[in-house]
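quick one before i forget lol
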Amino acid sequence: MDLDISRIVKETSSIVLIELVSHDGSALPLYQAGAHIELKLPNGLLRQYSLCRLPTTGMSYEIAVLKDPHSRGGSELLHKMQVGDRLQASYPQNHFLLKNPRKTAILLGAGIGITPLIPMAQMLSKTGVDFALHYSAKSPASAAFYDQLKTSVFADKVHWHFSNSNSRLDIESLLRGFTSHPDLYICGPSQYIEEVMNCAKVMGWPEEKLHREFFTGTKSPLMDQVPREMFQVKIASSGQMIDVPPGVSITEALEMNGIDIPISCEEGWCGTCMTRVIDGVPDHRDTFLSPQEHARNSLIMPCCSGSRSDCLVLDL
């Protein structure tokens, strides 16, 4: 889709809200809570951003972009763009779907991780189901959509947790207060998500009740084991053998040999490059696949993962 920037709002000192409309003025595809779009930036980078409100008129999308101090060129460029600038985008995709908008849910967001949770809160509020939104940030000034959430129709469902005022979320106390195990939807930095996930598992939450979306890459437990410094990838369709030297990702090695596969985040959290493994043992370094999928070793995120065997046979 060709999209134009129609509005830019400075939400905080480091977060901007960007409204996008179709270049030709047509209606945009609808989507469900938790969806994201992938933007192709003028410098060629691909970046994914959650859509941070439910469709209203169907004529615009809204995303929130945090200016990352360690930006590799994506967020920094978007913070420099102006109204009228054009971007290309994918159709909305959803790997973080609200499982059942008519069942009790607990939404847990930290920092920019609040973005996919706002449409979920809007949907849950519409259905009238009981829910809670816990938003963790450093301070009110650093919390995106602070004023909007304070005046929303579900403002009484929003619980604020600010680390700078000693009101940090006590995850263990919160989860201990539930006699049942409602669905948990978690989004934010990897450390925050891991803390919530680990605490919930200790308290008996079933895996299918835990839903998360990462906004940054994190290390898989397998990274504590020494992977192969150099290995080979075999292309199943042709039998071609490709060397993957130290410091080079599988996708980079494939590209150097004329084999391109779709990539986006390059950190293993978006799922774009997911590839089937026919033989060999991957060294999983992604956060997209579940622990059970890691254990099966039938899929790999080649943008970031390596190998624990001398050769990986990929379904390419």
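fyi Confidence is low (pLDDT under 50) at residues 216-226.
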